[in-house]
Amino acid sequence: MKNMVYIQSGGPTSVINTSFYGALKEAMRHPDKIDGIYGSLNGIEGMIDDKLIDIRKEDPEQIELLLQTPGSILGTTRRKLPKDINDPLYEKVLNTIKKREIKYIFINGGNDSMDTCSKISTLCREKGLDVIVVGVPKTIDNDLACTDHSLGFPSAAKFIINTINALSMDACCFKVGKVHICEIMGRNAGWLTACADLLPEETRPHLFYIPEVPFDVEKFLVDVERVYKEKGYVMVCISEGIDFERANKNSRVDGFGHRQLGGAAAGLCEIVERRLDLPTRGVEFSLTQRACPLAISKVDREEAIKTGEIAVQAALRGETGKMVIFKRVSQNPYKIEYELADVSLVANAESKIKPEMIVDATRMSDSFREYIAPLIEGEVQLVTKHGIATMANFKKVMVR
Amino acid sequence: MKNMVYIQSGGPTSVINTSFYGALKEAMRHPDKIDGIYGSLNGIEGMIDDKLIDIRKEDPEQIELLLQTPGSILGTTRRKLPKDINDPLYEKVLNTIKKREIKYIFINGGNDSMDTCSKISTLCREKGLDVIVVGVPKTIDNDLACTDHSLGFPSAAKFIINTINALSMDACCFKVGKVHICEIMGRNAGWLTACADLLPEETRPHLFYIPEVPFDVEKFLVDVERVYKEKGYVMVCISEGIDFERANKNSRVDGFGHRQLGGAAAGLCEIVERRLDLPTRGVEFSLTQRACPLAISKVDREEAIKTGEIAVQAALRGETGKMVIFKRVSQNPYKIEYELADVSLVANAESKIKPEMIVDATRMSDSFREYIAPLIEGEVQLVTKHGIATMANFKKVMVR
User: What pLDDT, on the 0 to 100 scale, is given for residue A243?
Assistant: First the structure.
């Protein structure tokens, strides 16, 4: 018996189940090499607690729906594994591997998940188990190192760009406009926040504040006031990762900063109202930006399927401790090649917007726009029933 | 000269320019009866300040793009007109009507805008002007009286339903789930909040709190705790219009209630965290729900075009002081007829969810679902350029 297990880890994206789809379709093409195709429930937790489901028992129609189902169909986790591979927890993982005769492990996730990938790979090697561990890149934040971009980022970017396009049309139509502050995900990287720079002049946000540039609340207020005077309304994109606490301290606003509740947008709206006496509207894109399947990029979907396939092919070739990465070999026409990188290199690094891609708070560089543009190309048609996109519904039959 | 002027008023929707499209295309079919086709900039403000643009000068290609352009292309206003028709402001409106030889006035909006419609209609009649005033229904809140539903509501509902569908898939995939509180628009009516009840069992929100049912924060906490214990996560839909201040007072939380910033969702998240010690996530759908064109309902689009046409036809027949309304004459297959209602009846009423449509906080009735279902049917394909929906861009040539 040579079984495989697929693990989804970290925050979901709108295409996280699409790379899983690619992997399991590819696995099904190799019945001679892969017997059981299992899914680990709730990330690495399923390996610790021996909670695996048998994917071969799922309805083929439901498997097709993975292509448009956000959220991790197998469940996910944010649990970080201990450093010491002699920790008793790893014994449990090893027990599951042995009991379920696991030969191939696929871990789909971002930086933290690649850390898990690296640890499990090291564990198996040091314990002398002939087990292959391959990483599949995923994060809307686009902060994974070693790869041109990450799966999920293009669709989240496309959703954000199209939504801000619409919000700009909404914002500019009032005689007395507001300062609109849109708060966007990305942790320490501004990729998602800056991507609306690709919009045409009429709907492009006026100001961008990303974690790569130190945030200065006084400069921010000057920028906002200047644009408001000129345009009569302001569209601001801020990253959730800007140094807001410092902004708060600098502005000496007491009893303020419920970041966990209203977030940076709400906080900055309050500062703008107090200091500039301008009307504001904070818009947090929140979970919608990573989950909403209404703007899945065709490129993202195709690459996600291919990445799943490549991961399985690499595993069957015996590659281990590696993550699938994208190398952009041509910009026009856009073309990537799929390669492999050591997961330990990926796990401990973070990819941010390069300084040369940033002009100032009002503009990104041409190179930034050229980088993003091909990723958001193409629309996908969702399968719907009475106007509602159909979500995959798994039976989740436990492996016994 | 018999000229027409079209006025967009109140909060925009994703199809507000679609009914305008229908009206101006119909007007263009009657060059014998309508000479100038004008747009009033920023709602009634354009009539007060004589700021009209000549729609015939716009590029036909841009006019076609109105079908997918959110925000009011002509600009909008929330200005409420004075009661006294002898107010000097009305003199200005009359001057514009006379100077520009306006025969037909179309006012597109919700309750407040129908009040404007009613006042302008009365004004013209009392001043002996042979001017026709016709209302075009619009509001995502769906709270307009006399009509089966309002334009813009179906597309907003479709966006919300599909987004909550995705958020539910995202919410249920963590081992330690959160209490997700989604805050949805609708003022004093819960239509948009309750519409996610149409989702299938797997992604249907667990709890709904709408303005039609008095909000009891203690009952809310009991409900949330019960669902969390059972499911491990909770999806809650709350209307922006629930009596949140009272909730706040009841729960005796001091230094709290920045409604204008974080809104009801943020406030209730804080209460849940303090009282139940459960992790929360507040999601405000904010302006995205009314502007995002990614889920325009085909039914909404078709009805918006038709409504614009019907409004012009009614005006040409000499109907005045009326708003186009929808009467549902058949449920299966869904069929509406277009009729006219006196704008004064519409202006001073509000349509809310009927008591018999509400079962309890966990469920709407079959009649509610049957009412909503046909409205969200059908998808529209957006014209895109490099993955971004193309927005109409008007030259706005002033009428001189």
Answer: 83
Amino acid identity of residue B79, one-letter, is R
Mind listing the pLDDT tens digit for each residue in A133-175?
Answer: 999 999 999 999 999 999 999 999 999 999 999 999 999 999 9
Interchain CB contact of A137 with B (< 8 Å) = no
Q: Is A270 at the interface with chain B, CB within 8 A?
A: yes
Examine residue A225 and state whether it is found in any structural domain, yes or no. Answer: yes
Which of A161, A261, A284 comes nearest B270 by C-beta? A261
The DSSP 8-state label assigned to residue A58 in this structure reads S
A56 lies in the same domain as A186: no
What is the CB neighbour count within 10 angstroms for residue A31? 9
Q: Hey, which residues does B5 pair with through a beta bridge? A: B38, B105
Region A95-106: mean pLDDT is 98
Contact assignment for A261 to B282 by CB distance below 8 Å = yes
pLDDT at A391: 98
Distance (Å) from the C-alpha of residue B181 to the closest C-alpha of chain A?
11
Asked if B144 and B137 count as a contact pair (C-beta separation under 8 A), the reply is yes
Residue A341 and residue A282 in one domain: no
Q: Give the tens place of pLDDT for each residue, A190-230.
A: 999 999 999 999 999 999 999 999 999 999 999 999 999 99
In this prediction, residue A87 carries a pLDDT of 96
The verdict on B359 touching A (C-beta cutoff 8 Å) is no
> ω into residue A333 within 30 of 0, thus cis?
yes
Q: Give the Å distances, CA to CA, from A259 to A240, A263, B64, B329.
A: 10, 4, 43, 50
Q: In this predicted structure, what is the pLDDT of residue A91?
A: 97
Q: What is the pLDDT of residue A245?
A: 63
Does residue A226 sit within a domain?
Answer: yes
ipTM: 0.95
Choose, out of A74, A198, A294, the residue to mutate when testing the contact with B (most B CBs < 10 Å). A294
Q: Which residue of B has its CA nearest to A16?
A: B170
Residues from chain A that touch B393, judged by Cβ atoms under 8 A, are 202
Residue of A nearest to B174 (CA): A76
Q: What value does the CA radius of gyration of chain A take, rounded to a whole number of Å?
A: 22
CATH code at position B47: 3.40.50.450
A10 with A96, same domain: the answer is yes
CATH of the domain at B281: 3.40.50.460
User: Over 80: is that where the pLDDT of B116 sits?
Assistant: yes
Residue B1 — pLDDT band, cuts 50, 70, 90?
A: confident
Is residue A56 one of the residues assigned to a domain?
A: yes
Q: Same domain, yes or no, for B235 and B114? A: no
A165 occurs within a structural domain: yes
Would you state the pLDDT for residue B348?
79
Total number of domains in chain A = 2
Among A347, A33, A369, CA closest to A199: A369
A125: containing domain: 3-139+296-348+381-389
Q: Does B122 touch chain A (CB under 8 A)?
A: no
Q: Which residues of B are catalytic?
A: 141
Q: Which of A203, A297, A391 sits opposite B169 (nearest CB)?
A: A391
Q: What contacts A21, CB < 8 A, 6 or more positions away?
A: A63, A64, A66, A67, A304, A305, A308
Question: How many Cβ atoms are within 10 Å of A349's Cβ, its own excluded?
Answer: 13
Q: Hey, is the C-beta of B391 within 8 angstroms of any chain A C-beta?
A: yes
The model carries a pTM of: 0.96
Q: A353-383: per-residue pLDDT in tens?
A: 999 999 999 999 999 999 999 999 999 999 9
